[in-house]
Amino acid sequence: MATQTEKCAGEAQSFERFGAAMLSGKVSDSAYLRFQSLAAYRQINAGETVPNMDLADRFVFLASGATKLVAEASGGREQVVAFHFADDLVSIPARGPHGYTLRALTDCDILVFPSLEFMQIAHTEPVTLGEVARRALHALWRCREKAVLLGRKTAQERIASFLIATARRIGSIERGACVLSLPMSRRDIADSLGLTTETVSRQFTDLRQMGLIATSGRSEVRLLDIAGLVARSGNFSIAA
Amino acid sequence: MATQTEKCAGEAQSFERFGAAMLSGKVSDSAYLRFQSLAAYRQINAGETVPNMDLADRFVFLASGATKLVAEASGGREQVVAFHFADDLVSIPARGPHGYTLRALTDCDILVFPSLEFMQIAHTEPVTLGEVARRALHALWRCREKAVLLGRKTAQERIASFLIATARRIGSIERGACVLSLPMSRRDIADSLGLTTETVSRQFTDLRQMGLIATSGRSEVRLLDIAGLVARSGNFSIAA
DNA sequence: CAGGATCATTGACCTGAGTCAAAGACGCTG
DNA sequence: CAGCGTCTTTGACTCAGGTCAATGATCCTG
Lengths: 240, 240
Known about the structure:
Chain A is α+β, with helices and mostly antiparallel strands. Chain A has eight helices and eleven strands.
């Protein structure tokens, strides 16, 4: 379980956070300064889109807040490809079969880097390059898990899997139970799990009636029986 | 369009191929030798699984042949997470919510590395580390495209997308048309696209009747109207 | 090159999730 | 703290794709 993130508004704090996460203090002063001058600091309000700048690939470091990466298919269909929280590094391709946009779920502090230049500097700093590789592989792992979910799981298994995975990222312990404060709407969850808001809602209701979860308000979910959720998540092996 | 791959059986040729792809000649002799002693060469016959060795994360370099990375969910459901062809580097996590296995579609020559040690050596060679990062980001990009496909596309759009994407990887030009020699069965395609063999078959039939493709035997597909396929692929922007 | 096993195709029917529509809850603003 | 817009929930019905079952095409082996 990760701890919830505090606010961190401000360019200096944001870059400091980036340094701690990606440069881990072992980077040369010159590289440090080059990263600093390359970084474009932005504050993004909830609901806003991270502007596309030019048409190049970008890395976005999320210093605070939460975002979703949305891919658009034809016919206005949207798929949420990933959610991100503080300290995450997001890779956004400029173009492809689908258009990608990064949208803020809450107010965010971010640093935007052009990928090409970022990688050029990183090539002189093994620590940072290794961190990019490590994070990319981790994101790939998560994306594969999502592919299994989207390709082969029922609506209920998708919701159970989502709750377990999200709890591991932003859940907190409160009076023995795991509590989630979801920054995303039912629509975001639906677009992430390949469902509709109606189906998401129905599955929440079912899990509530089974006594596996309790909800209060629009965003708070309390996981009452994690073992029961795992059993219903469609996972092959028991998650570690 | 990539060119089809020739056979390359043999440990020496396989490692040479690895060197050309991942070390690009600029690597120190000591790192070269360390990679060489870390690599476990294997020949895998079509249909066989790459043995799990110990329980650690692995990188597999595919020197020749084609493989599928399969994730297993509960109830024996299988999801093909990715296909791989010659010169691809596959990252296989040891454990997670779903068990992963790498299976050969054709006879293969592979090099297996334990991830941890591989990354340790790579940290001394920016070229290789950068290549790992580049490939991981590329695999992530592909996996995201797959998530859009699995989350939001119809059966027909999935098949069209699959044919276009596969043509780009292993298609060859023959008398003006793009020809695919698919190394995977209908079941593999179905497990990759989140469908059943029956649905895959029906969609092939439909595309054939629309005059977009022609098939001969079990594995050969001729793309007669690529623009038509793209139009039916559900892609948002026209693919480059 | 005949026999047989596997793989692919086709057809009939069924179901889980989508769609459409309406009512209810939340939470924001004045 | 009342009013209103948005988000969520619930219900009735539809349909794309799954399931079950049978037939037909490949291709491999002896």
